[in-house]
Amino acid sequence: MNQSQVAHLVKCIVKMYPYVVADDTYMNIWLATTKHADFEATMERFYRYVSDPKSRHAVPLPADLVVNGRDSGLFQETEKMRQWEAEAKAHPVDKSSLPHLEVFTND
């Protein structure tokens, strides 16, 4: 997210939680933690967060809202895992081709 997007998010947080002080430290925390975040997905998560009655008194932390964007390593690893799962489902292993292991007992 860029600086203006982070400023918009912080402005929304302050509107919903007026006791939050959006000083330089608060802004710097949000800027640092949203560097690779997807703005639309993060805002969507913000709206879901403030709509949830369980979180109406708790100010959201970056961990509650931030959705990493496509540039992050986490997103790339997640995409790799999805590809592997799709390949595994498309080409399931034939269990009859696996070697049979015998179980020995101490009788």
What does this structure look like?
This protein has one domain. The model has no long low-confidence stretch (mean pLDDT 87). The termini are far apart. It has 107 residues and is mainly alpha-helical. It is built from five helices and no strands. Helix 1 (3-16) runs parallel beside helix 3 (39-51). The chain has helices spanning 3-16, 24-33, 39-51, 62-65, 73-90.
In short:
By secondary structure, the chain is an all-alpha fold. It has helices at 3-16, 24-33, 39-51, 62-65, 73-90.
Category by helix and strand content: mainly alpha
N- to C-terminal distance: 67 Å
> What number is the mean pLDDT?
87
**What can be said about the biggest beta sheet?**
none
What are the secondary-structure elements, in order, as H or E? Answer: HHHHH
* Cα-atom radius of gyration: 23 Å
* Number of self-contained structural domains: 1
Helix content: 55-70%
Name the beta content range. under 5%
Apparent shape: elongated
Number of strands: 0
Number of helices: 5
**Uncertain residue ranges:** none
Organism: Sporolactobacillus nakayamae
Protein name: Loader and inhibitor of phage G40P
What structural keywords apply?
107 residues; mainly alpha; 5 helices; 0% strand; Loader and inhibitor of phage G40P
List the helices and strands and how they pair.
Layout: H1 3-16, H2 24-33, H3 39-51, H4 62-65, H5 73-90
Helix pairs in contact: 1-3
Organism: Sporolactobacillus nakayamae
Protein name: Loader and inhibitor of phage G40P
